[in-house]
Every structure is written in C-alpha cells, then in structure tokens.
Design a protein that fits this description.
The chain is mainly beta. It has six domains: 2-281, no CATH class; 302-366, Immunoglobulin-like (Sandwich), CATH 2.60.40.10; 374-451, Immunoglobulin-like, CATH 2.60.40; 468-536, Immunoglobulins (Immunoglobulin-like, Sandwich); 545-621, Sandwich (Immunoglobulin-like), CATH 2.60.40.10; 625-713, Immunoglobulin-like. 2% of the residues lie in helices and 45% in strands. Strands 41-47-46-43-44 form a five-stranded mixed β-sheet, with no helix packed on it. It has a five-stranded mixed β-sheet with strand order 49-54-53-51-52, with no helix packed on it. A four-stranded antiparallel β-sheet has the order 1-2-6-5, with no helix packed on it. The longest helix has 17 residues, at 2-18. It is elongated. It starts with a helix and ends with a strand.
C-alpha cells in the first residue's frame, strides 16, 4: 500500500511540476436563422499551469471556401468552470492538485450562404511539455476548427458533445467514456478517433488564425490517431454511440482527438473535433468495508444495519438467515426481519465485481426486547407498610435483577427476583427502580410509591359557653395525606361537611360536638374527635319599654318611660342618652335639658350574664323666636339708630323692607345686620313714615317661618 501511494504521489508531482499550457479545446456553431450563427469555443487548460492563461479575447478567424480570411472576430472571455475530478471507477483515489478549467467564448456572426461555405478557426500555443505520445510536445500548438457547408440554405447546426471529457483515467481499469454528441437537424452522426491539429507554436505564441489547410500533430513511435495511448485491449470508439472503451496499461499524458461528423443523405456537412489530453495514473483501492459492531439486538426480530464503508459504490448484504433464500439486500443501510431469534453471521460485500471489492462480517444476536416492569402489594399506611415488590414481565430463568429502593428504605437494594418486604422511614413519595438483564439485553423501569399518614380528626373552638342564639366557629386542625371527608355532628340534630363550619345554636341547652374524618385514597381510614366538655347555650333575657312622647319641645322636654316587667334574677338598666340612667325602674319621668336626638337604651341582664337591649329615640325639638321692634329714630343721637330684628334658632335668614309704594329699600341675609334708614344702607336718607318688612326663616326643625309687619321711621 505504501509503495502504491508513493507511485501515485510521484505521478501527481510529475504532472503538476512540469505541466503548463493548454489541455485541449473544441469549436461548434448553431444556426439560429436569418444567416446568424452562434459560435461557441471551449478551451481547456491546466489550473496549475503558469503559462497559457485564458485569453481575455479569443481571436477567431473566418475563411471562405477558397481559404481566404474574411474577418477576425474578437470574442470576450465567458464563464470559467473547474471540471469535476470524479471518476467512474470507485477504486480510484483522485490525486491531489490535478485540476482542469474550461473557458467558454460565445459570439454571433452573420454568414450568408456562399459557395464553398466557411471555415471557422482558433489557434493557440502551447501543449504540455510532459505529453507521452508525441515528440517534443512543447513545440506543438493547437488548432480548433469547424466548417459551415457550402450554400447552407438549410441553416445547419454542428454536432455538440453531450458531456465534458474526464480529467483522470485509471491504469489497468476498463474504460467506458461517453463521448456522444447531439445534433438538432436530425442528421446522421459518425464517431472516430482522429488527428489533433497543430497551430500557434512556440514561434507564434500569440493568438492568431491562419487559413487552412492545417497540419496534424505527429505521434511518436507506436502511437497514432487510432492508437493514442498504451492499452490492452486497445482504445477504440464506437462509431455509432461515441462510447470509448479499452484498458490503459501505462502511466502518462496522452494527446488524442475525437471527431464526430454529420451526414445528410450521404453528404458530409461538418465535423466537430475535440482535441484533448488523457491523464493516466496508477489507481489503488480506496475502499474500506465495515459494519457497525453490535453485540446484541434487543429490539425484536427486525434489525437495522449501519454501513460504515468508505468509498463504496454498490453493496450486497447477506443476513445469514438459513431459513430463507431472500435474506439479501443491495441497500446501503438496510433493515431485515428474521424469522426467529438467534445468532446470525451477517456479511457485507462492497463493489462486488470491481477490482477493489471488499467484505466484512459480524455476528448478530437477535432477541425480543426485555421489558422490566414490577407490581407491588401491601398497606400504604405508614404504620403498616411491609410492601412486597415482584417483577411483572416474561423473563427467562437466567434473568438477573437489580432493585433499588433508596436510602430511606429498610432495604436499600436487592438482586433477588422477590426482594424482602420494604418499609420506608417516613411518609412521602419514593421512586423505586428495577433493572433486568436477560439474554444480554437490559431494561430499566421505575415508578413512584407513596406512603401516607393515617387521617387524624381534631378541631378547636374559641368559646364553648354563650347566650342564645349562640354562634360558634369551629376551626379544623385534622391531618391527612390525601383528601379528607368531614362529618360534623353539632349535638342539636344538625350536621355539616365543611372543614371549618360556623354554626348557630338557637335554643338554650348543653350540646356534645363530634367530628368524623375519613379518607378514600392513600391510607384509607377514619378518625373521630369529640370536643372535651360541651357547648353550653344559656337563655337570654327579653328587653322592652315604651316612651311617651318620643318627640317633645324644648319648652316642655319631659318624657315618660315604662319598662317591661323583669323576671327573677334579671336587672334592668335604662340609659336616657343624655348621661343619666335608672336601674330596675318600671316607670320613669325624665326631663331633658337641651334640644337634640337621644337614644334611649334598656339593657336587661340575667343571672347568666346574658343581655338583651332595646333602643328607641327621643327628639327634643328646638324653637325659633323672632322679635321685631315697631319704630326707630336714625337721627344721629346714638339712640335707636338701626332697625334690626332679634332672631334665635334660625338656620337660614332673609330680611326685606319696602316703602309705602312697594319699592324695596333694604335686603339682608345676615341676622346681625340691620337697616340704618338709608336706601340699602348706603344711599339717600329714607323719609319719615311707615315701612313694611318681611322676614323669612328656616328654623332648626327644617321648617320655614314667614313674619310680616310695619315699622315707623322717625328722625
């Protein structure tokens, strides 16, 4: 292997260090009507070459049938692509630094039909100096030419090759190179190996186009156009299909040419010549076959295979199933379903029939999946426990077990199929796993188990003694790990299912209270709690009294209160609302000293310190007083100068004076402002005489009072 690799690398170094210049080319045309032809020139060069770069403009010469140049067409450089370095033979490792570029030049020219037709030519120096089959290869140039038929009234198009030529050929490898062409006019095509043409030598390196005829590049001894390279069997081309076959048997670079000619009714119209260079190199097997190793298949009778082959092109699997003859596949990564479980030898053959075939075998053990599950039985109440775990799977007698119960269990782990009874050290949820291995297959199953506390009934109340009606709040303090159902019995014939109910005892008495709680999941149990002592409900007294009257005037603020008779052991307290009270009085006369609203309360207390209170309201109404003088003397002597009424108990006030003709001379809303005898107190003196007044008042009882009269003005 190392020797072959060295030969390959030396071959590559030889190609890249000495190669320079062009690799080949071809020229075609397509008629698009009106005597217009699209000319396409393809030029191939070595990417690693330091010389013969693609011309920015290709100089294409057009000659008539007498080989006289009609014109030079300068065509700009078109797209450049790098040809792929792939080869058909999967045995070949493509050498590094082998690279070929192809440039395309395209232009359209108008060429009317002419006797003798036209010749279209491109010439360029130079060929590689390392070519094997021609003498002094660096001295020979390249001519790519094609002809348009004489008087081309039918608008002929030349044949064009379908695919690009290969870069690398493999020594001692059978060739199958597709060099076929397409032809749009329906003409007959004929393929042959032909002479490459010389032109543009070292003495004339610049692009130029000389007229026909063109000389062939001479072949060295033992080589010719039809025998361009060393091969056994010899290189040949199928004249109908254009397929090149043969088996090269010498490393080197070989110039050759392929001609495809088109005929119409037996008349030659044109020939497309591809001038190219074969690179023949040593090939070494680059195929490595490997199947992903697997000790056991634990997913049933269907097995998927992972192909880890390097550089394989075709695959043949034999799954080793002796019970059938259809246990093969040509897929890269197949799946196969065996008829039964067992041990099988699986073989993979890669590139079967190629020189570089390889194979690999593995042993596959096919088993049904192992299912690891378990069940358990026992009491989930913390104080009972002793849980028994047991497998719930179809396993062989050789299966191994590994139980893990955790550090909170009395049995941390076990390898027995039936482990000892398990108890956990506190209520809670615990995850238990079981790992099972059977026939080399392993599965792990885990699930949770919860250990619960037993339910425990409990409650408390703030007060257990009260007066009827007695409302009691019961505060639940029961405990349980799962949902609790409550059943309260209040001792008075009523029940409740609320966790913390509020209950009112209407009738006096002594009542025993109990709470029953129970669970229906987890630790299923019940508990009952009875209140220490009983709920005692004492009778309440009944208060009542009358007031006559409930509304009085401040001028006569006296009321009479008569209370309901007291029962033995009861005391009555009468609160008059003005700070005075009377105890155990059946009748009271009370005098209020001020106006206002007074809440009279009668509180009755019995021997159980139970009370009852009745409240009634007494209103002492205020009275409004209005005093109006009948005359005043605004003469400046300082006596009786202002006329002003005296008002008490008014919420709102209006005072208006009119003269004898009804004209208004004074108005005020201020009870402290009087009339000084002038018009509105600031104008001219009003004359002596009688004036009329009107007083409007809203009193403290929200009632309106109007007082009218006359006044004598004397100066």
């Amino acid at each position: 292997m190392k020797k072959l690799t060295l030969i390959l690398l030396l071959s590559v170094v030889s190609f890249t260090a000495k190669s320079a210049h062009l690799v080949g080319g071809e020229i075609t045309y397509q008629c698009v009507g009106n005597n217009n032809y699209i000319i396409t020139l393809k030029v191939y060069r070595d990417c690693n070459s330091s010389g013969a770069q693609f011309d920015p403009q290709a100089k294409i010469g057009i000659f008539n049938g007498n080989n006289v140049k009609l014109q030079d067409v300068f065509v700009n450089l078109g797209p450049i692509i790098q040809l792929p370095t792939t080869v058909a033979n999967p045995c070949l490792i493509v050498p590094p630094n082998v690279c070929t570029e192809m440039a395309t030049y395209t232009t359209t020219v108008n060429l009317p039909p002419a006797i003798g037709g036209y010749h279209i030519t491109y010439q360029r120096c130079c060929r590689n100096g390392t070519i094997t089959n021609i003498p002094n290869p660096g001295t020979w140039g390249n001519t790519y030419t094609i002809s348009i038929p004489s008087m081309d009234n039918n608008c002929n198009s030349a044949p064009a090759y379908v695919s690009n030529p290969p870069i690398i050929l493999c020594m001692n490898d059978s060739l199958y190179i597709n060099s076929s062409a397409t032809e749009s006019d329906g003409d007959s095509l004929f393929y042959e190996l032909c002479d490459p043409l010389h032109g543009g030598s070292q003495n004339d390196p610049a692009p130029n186009a000389f007229p026909p005829p063109y000389s062939s590049v001479p072949f060295g001894p033992g080589y010719s156009a039809t025998n361009p390279l060393n091969a056994n069997p010899a290189i040949q081309i199928n004249p109908v299909t254009g397929i090149i076959t043969g088996k090269p048997n010498q490393v080197g670079q070989f110039v050759f040419a392929i001609c495809v000619s088109e005929y119409r009714n037996g008349v030659l119209l044109s020939t497309t010549r591809r001038d190219y260079q074969f690179n023949v190199t040593n090939c070494m097997s680059n195929v490595s076959t490997q199947i992903l190793p697997q000790s056991s298949n634990c997913s049933g009778r269907t097995v998927s295979f992972a192909n880890q082959t390097i550089n394989g092109s075709n695959f043949h699997w034999d799954f080793g199933d002796a019970n059938t003859s259809s246990d093969t596949s040509n897929q890269q990564n197949p799946s196969y379903t065996y008829n039964d479980t067992g041990t099988y030898i699986v073989k993979l053959i890669v590139n079967r029939g190629w020189p570089c075939t390889d194979s690999s075998e593995i042993e596959v053990k096919v088993y049904y999946p192992v299912v690891s599950k378990y069940q358990w039985s026992g009491d989930q109440c913390f104080d009972a426990q002793n849980i028994q775990f047991y497998p719930d799977a179809n396993l062989s007698g050789n299966a191994s077990y590994f139980w893990y119960f955790g550090n909170n269990a009395n049995v941390t782990q076990s390898t027995d199929s039936l482990p000892p009874p398990v108890s956990f050290n506190a209520p809670g949820t615990y995850y238990v796993t079981l790992q099972v291995t059977d026939f080399g297959c392993t599965d792990i199953y885990g699930d949770s188990i919860t250990i619960y506390e037993r339910p425990n009934a409990s409650f408390f109340v703030e007060d257990q003694v009260g007066c009827a009606p007695f409302t009691v709040e019961f505060a639940d303090s029961s405990k349980g790990s799962t949902a609790i159902t409550y059943v309260w019995d209040f001792g008075d014939g009523t029940t409740s299912n609320d966790p913390s109910p509020i209950h009112t005892y209407v009738n006096p008495g002594t009542y025993a209270v109990s709470l029953l709680v129970y669970t229906e999941t987890g630790c299923i149990d019940s508990s009952i709690y009875e209140l220490p002592g009983n709920i005692t409900v004492n009778p309440s007294p009944q208060s009542g009294f009358t007031i006559n009257p409930q509304e009085v005037s401040i001028y006569e603020p006296r009321v009479e209160v008569i209370t309901n008779p007291l029962k033995p052991g009861e005391n009555g307290i009468l609160l008059m609302g003005d700070g005075l009270q009377y105890n155990n009085q059946s009748s009271v006369l009370h005098l209020y000293s001020d106006t206002g609203n007074f809440d009279v309360k009668y509180v009755v207390i019995n021997q159980y310190n139970c009370t009852d209170t009745v409240v009634k309201r007494v209103r002492v109404k205020p009275e409004t007083n209005i005093f109006v003088p009948n005359a005043f003397t605004p003469n400046g002597d300082g006596l009786n100068e202002v006329f002003i009424p005296e008002i008490s108990g008014a919420l709102e006030y209006e005072f208006v004076i009119f003269n004898r003709w009804g004209g208004e001379v004074f108005r005020t809303y201020n009870p402290n402002e009087g009339w000084n005898g002038n018009d509105f107190n600031t104008g001219a003196n009003s004359p002596d005489g009688v004036y009329t007044f009107v007083i409007n008042v809203k009193d403290l009882n929200q009632e309106f009072i109007t007082k009218k009269g006359t006044i004598q003005l004397l100066r």
